[in-house]
Amino acid sequence: MNPLLFRLFRENETKVHELNYLFWECTTRCNFHCRHCGSDCSVLSREKDMPLEDFLGALDTIPARHRPKDFTVVLTGGEPLMRPDIAAAGKAIRARGFGWGMVSNGWFYDEKKHAEMMEAGMGVMTISLDGLEQSHDWMRGVPGSYRHAVRAIGIMSAEPRLCSDVVTCVNKRNLHELPQIHDLLKGLGVQQWRLFTIIPIGRAASDPEMHLSNEEFTSLMDFIRAKREAGGAMEVTFSCEGYLGRYEEKVRPVRYFCHAGINIASILIDGRICACPNIDRDCFSQGSIYKDNFYEVWEKRFQPFRDRSWARRGICKDCSQWRNCLGNGMHNWHGDCESVLQCHYAKTLQKG
Fold first, then answer.
1. Across all residues in the chain, what is the average pLDDT?
2. Residue 124: which residues within 8 A CB-CB, separation 6 or more?
3. Which of 111, 186, 120, 115 is closest to 155 using CA atoms?
4. What's the CA gap between 29 and 77, in Å, rounded?
5. Segment (H or E) for 228
6. Taking a C-beta distance cutoff of 8 angstroms, is the pair 337, 208 a contact?
7. Is residue 280 over pLDDT 90?
8. Rounded to an integer, what distance in angstroms lies between the CA atom of residue 208 and that of residue 211?
9. pTM for the full model?
């Protein structure tokens, strides 16, 4: 799409700000100890699981006339399947006319669990695979996690009623494995493979193996571009984490657009209302379902997401690409927000 037309489209989407994607951080309990976790989840989380009725009460504030047909509620965590009432939650969400899905590490996802989730009306699923066996288990901190993930991906991908994808966090350890991972996932019948890189927050902030050099980042872009140009049944894409300069529309089907707070909201484990769950919740939370009407917050707040002029500071202040980037993805602003944590555009200036 022409950059000018795209900016007009983005402005209109921002003005309308139709909510069509809602994350529910339903638990922060997790059976893994991932090196890149931004939530520092654990089996014995300090936060209790949010009661289902509390989330449904917030969901019920959305007027029927403002519920688009493609509205999706995504259960995330932690590991959602550590909650015993996931099927009941899915059924209750479906009964209200919303689609639902989940993001899972795949450990608990066997044929029995799959049948239970499908009977509850699940329509969307994402499973993570972060390398071949040694790399994935290293990343996830649990031996056997790779085998469980591959089993879950096979079950998920064989289900024609599911819109599903696999996500991979690319790092120094698994970058060279991408061609083999591609062939593995293609053989499993995966519909879409979505790759992303890590931001320096949570456990990953001080782990150098998590972060690609500019040259490595460029090689990742070239890998994705080559796979997209080759075509095939499995779509390979880069996530929407930042503006990519010369790689725009070559590694994704559309131009970069951070939809956080524009079309995407989240209800966090403690009831706070935000956009994507990995955005700095201390800086950018907009209210709480325990104090506010969720949909009124969506309609009347979220100003930092819909007017990004405040982000023209630090390394973004005099950038020639500001109109296209608007300061990168919102998840790249943490802490004092004096400057964006990383610039994807700068990484693409590495000659490939």
1. 94
2. 72, 74, 99, 100, 101, 102, 162, 163, 164
3. 111
4. 7
5. helix 214-230
6. no
7. yes
8. 6
9. 0.95
